[in-house]
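User: C-alpha cells for this one?
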Amino acid sequence: MRYINAPLKLEFDIDKNSEEFKREYDSLSSTDDDSIGEWLRLAKARGNTDESDQVLLTLIVELHRKIDEMNAFIRGEKQTLLELTCRADIEGINYEHIKLKDGVFEDSKKYYGRIEMPFFPKRQVPIYFRAISKTEAKILLLHERDETDWNAYVVARERVMIREMKAKKDGN
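Assistant:
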C-alpha cells in the first residue's frame, strides 16, 4: 500500500459497540453541526447560492458559527467529547487507510476515533476503522462531508509530496 506523509494526531479506543461512541459520531456529523450549516447545505442543494460568492458565503457562515460558540461559552454550555484512552501520531494516509508511527493496534479489532484535521473549518473528524496490522488500519466509516474533505486532504498532501520530490531531484 502506498501512503502519503501526513502530520496528524489520532485519539481512539476499541469499539465495544458503545452507544456513547455512536452518539458522539452522530453529534459530530455535518447535519447536527448547526442550523446555519444545515440551512446552507439545503440552499446549495436547491441552487439558491449559485449567484453568491462561495468563499464569502463560507466565511460568513464560519463567523456565525464562532458567534454561536461564544454564546454557548457565555451560557456555560460546552460540547464535551468522550475521553478516548489511546493517542497516536499518524505517519501516513491514503484514501482508505491510515498508518501509525508506532504499532499500537490490536489486529482485526474495530476502533472508534477522532482526528483533528487541519482544513477549513478546523474540526474533529469522527472515524470508525479496523486494524489490519499493528500500525495499519482500514477506514470503515466517515461522514459524507468528512469523507469529501479527507479525500481533498489526501490530494493536497500528495501534491506536497510531489513538489518535495521534484525539489530534491532539481537540487541534486
